[in-house]
Amino acid sequence: MKNVDRFERPTTRVNRGGTLASVFLLIAVALSLPGIHSRADDAPRRILILSAYNYTFPAATQVIDGIESRLRERSSQKLAIDAEFLDLVRVADNAHEVRTATFLREKYAARPPDVLVVVGGTALQFIMNYRDVVAPQIPVVFAGVSQATYSALHPPANVTGVLVGLDFEKTLHLAELLQPTTRRLIVIGSNVTLEDRRWHEAARGAIERHDRKFETTYLFGLSFDALVSEVSRIPNDAIVIFLTFFADGTGKAFVGREVARELVRISPAPIYGPYNTYLDTGVVGGFFETFKSHGAAAAELVLAVSAGKDPASLPPKVNPTQAFHVDSRAMARWGLKQGNLPPGTDVLFEEPSLWEEHRYLTSAVALVIALLMGGVAVLLVQLRRRRQAERSLKESEDRMTFTAATANIGLWQFDRTTDELWTTDHCRTMFGLASDTLLTRETFLAAAHPEDRRIAVRTLRGVSRGHAAVTDIRIVRLDGQIRWFRIRARAPFDGIKAPDQLSGMLVDITDQKAAESEAELQRQEVTHLMRVSALGELSGAIAHEVNQPLTAILSNAQAAIYLLDQDPPNLAEVRDTLRDIVLEDNRAGEVVQRLRGLLKKGESRSERIDLNEMVDSTTTLLRSELIRRRVMVETDLAAGLPTVLGDSVQLQQVLLNLVVNAMDAMASTPVEQRRVNIRTSRTPDGDIAIRLKDQGPGIRPVDEKQVFTPFYTTKHHGLGLGLTICLLFESTAEPSTSEMTTRGELLPRFRCLLASC
Q1: Separation in Å, CA 478 to CA 430, 441, 447, 475
Q2: In angstroms, rounded to a whole number, what is the distance separating the alpha carbons of residues 200 and 641?
Q3: pLDDT at 58
Q4: Which residues are within 8 A (CB) of 266 and not within 5 positions of it... i.e. 6 or more apart?
Q5: Is 89:36 a contact under the CB 8 Å cutoff?
Q6: H or E element: which one contains 170?
């Protein structure tokens, strides 16, 4: 697409002696500037765009927008993009070029660009004349330059870009298809720049080579007023092609888009143009590329150069996105048929047809008519189906009620507006109520156990907010019998107001609760037996722990008697001996107290526990057994840990089992390697963890899945109940390592949850 309207107005090269002297002076100054400092790796890539046009030219701004958008979209580097509108087309004098080159040199001396982008043939000629002044040795990418201008300028090999692919013949071909009988052709354009004249020569050559001969009139170089006068007298069957119009014959500057709009307003015949900026002015259309896509194509070359490619290896190319484009509104104005358009033409601003514009309304009317015609038949069918549905619903209700009664389930529904409670007959039987008893919310709450009424009320209120709920409460029957019931309740909720209907079911779980209580009691008994069993295994060490303070007490008492028999008695020694007796007595009492704590029975209870003290207490209790088995215990206890809430007896039982298991696991380990490391720490999640690590062989993979199976053990003397009682498991972590956190997690080569925490 020839981009003369917005892009190409090259100035002639500077030939006067005074001007050449000025240029040489600027070049000398530029060469004396210090070299560009190398940027840091994280510095942005600087792109400088120089447009030959004024910022008011739509084509110029669209090309720059296309360049910037594509660079932002595709570049993986940080970019700093600057743009300058040099206005070289409307202000075409050598002094202006020198001032512009000096301005650019000084403005970007501290921030030289990495790539220079020039827009328009005039800008390319400018940068070739002043490249050593503005941006020496900087790669140059051009856009909006015609093939004729590029060939005439002979740029060096390291300058590449996108050529304007304007095709006058195809724009003429489009006009011929839409106006097949016309014989008159009018070509309009300015005659100011060299690029204009080349464009005119290309148009004349295409018309002369064309198979179809026209009576052609060229309106070039006229003043604007004269041009308006000529266009107003054009025959209404003529083809009019508007090229470029930077300035009229008097030198007055114009914007081509605005000139096109004015000519369309007064022209008796349709006007065609080779630029997308002419669309939406009344111009019918043409064959061209969009300026934004042209800029995007130039941006691809900029990205390649920024990536390190030599511009000399990237020959200039033509943007391949050219196509036929037409304005449907302009075609409708001139009565042109879309059926005559070339295949693949992009039709813009197309008005929807009556069906497309009102298809929903038409469809709705047709649907309403169809519904009215079938309404009576549908009502009759619905009436019959309703009777069948009512009969089926009654049968379904009877089956559901029978099934619920068989499963010992009572169904209920509560109406908030009337405060009435409906239940099945079996539900009344479960409550021990007569069939004629009036049921309300108060009747239900009165039957609930006094300790569970608050739970029942909270459950019903939660359901009233649109939440389903399940809870277990006790019901006191009229005969005084207490039964456990599980209440399931739900209600619809539309998000605006509370529901009026609540419904659900009651399940008698008295037998289940009794079984759970019995199972819990048996579990506590087995847990207690396991503690007794563990202490039985340690009986020798425990006896040693108790005998030590007793022996010390006996020895100190005999020493005290001996000292009192002296004459005179040594009272100071006697006093120290009695203190030792008290100390050893306290020591023996602590051992007995720890044993009593582990041996006592009863329900688990939560209390504040210092885990560091629990570790010290457990290792003290096992001290003799550790010495007997020649096992070294290393503790690494974090300071400042807060207390935790739990059952100290059960937690100590878990730790005791782990230490005993560690000693058993290291029975075959060399004595010098028998170490147990116990460490407490604070986890990133805010938990407190106890980690125990031994030097045993770990758990074999074949035993991992069965380690928590009741009565399964890898010890010759084990019962296989320790971990089963204390823990629930799921797979994880490393061998020979155990971890217990305040959330109840235990990690040996698996992950466990303390059942009692």
Answers
A1: 11, 17, 8, 10
A2: 91
A3: 86
A4: 228, 231, 232
A5: no
A6: helix 168-178
Q: Which amino acid is at 418?
A: T
SS3 at position 471 = strand
Which amino acid type is present at position 721?
A: L
In the three-class reduction of DSSP (H, G, I as helix; E, B as strand; rest coil), residue 436 is classed as coil
| Amino acid letter, 313 | S
Taking only the tens place, the pLDDT of each residue in 5-62 is: 333 333 333 333 344 444 444 444 444 444 444 444 567 889 999 998 888 888 888 9
How many of the other CB atoms lie within 10 Å of CB of 336? Answer: 20
3-state secondary structure (DSSP) of residue 415: strand
Bond preceding residue 155 cis, omega within 30 of 0:
no
Q: Tell me the C-alpha distance between 189 and 208, whole Å.
A: 18
Decide which of 710 and 680 is more confident: 680
The answer to whether the beta carbons of residues 279 and 345 sit under 8 Å apart is no
Residue given tokens 């019918």 in the structure block: 284
Peptide bond into 568 cis (omega under 30): yes
The label of the residue with tokens 């697409």 reads 1
Q: Which residues does 706 contact at the CB level (< 8 Å), separation at least 6?
A: 712
β strands within 289-333, DSSP E: 317-318, 323-327
Please tell me the total number of residues recorded for the chain in this structure.
757
At 163 the three-state DSSP class reads strand
Task: Copy the structure tokens of residue 174.
Answer: 């489009």
> DSSP string covering 206-230, please?
HHHH-SS--EEEEEES--HHHHHHH
What is the C-alpha separation between 587 and 575, in angstroms, rounded? 19
Distance CA 228, CA 221 (A): 13
Residue 426 in contact with residue 404, Cβ under 8 Å? yes
Q: Which of 197, 258, 63, 41 shows the shortest CA–CA distance to 143? A: 63
Within 8 A by CB and 6+ apart from 567, the residues are none
pLDDT at 21: 40
Q: To 10 degrees, what angle do helices 648-665 and 611-621 make?
A: 50
Residues paired with residue 486 on neighbouring β-strands, in sequence order: 472, 507
Contact in structure between 219 and 187 (CB atoms under 8 Å): yes
pTM: 0.43
Q: How far apart are the first and last CA of the chain?
A: 80
Residue 517 CA to residue 515 CA, distance in Å, equals: 5
Q: In this predicted model, what pLDDT tens digit does every residue of 447-470 receive, in sequence order?
A: 778 888 787 777 777 665 556 778
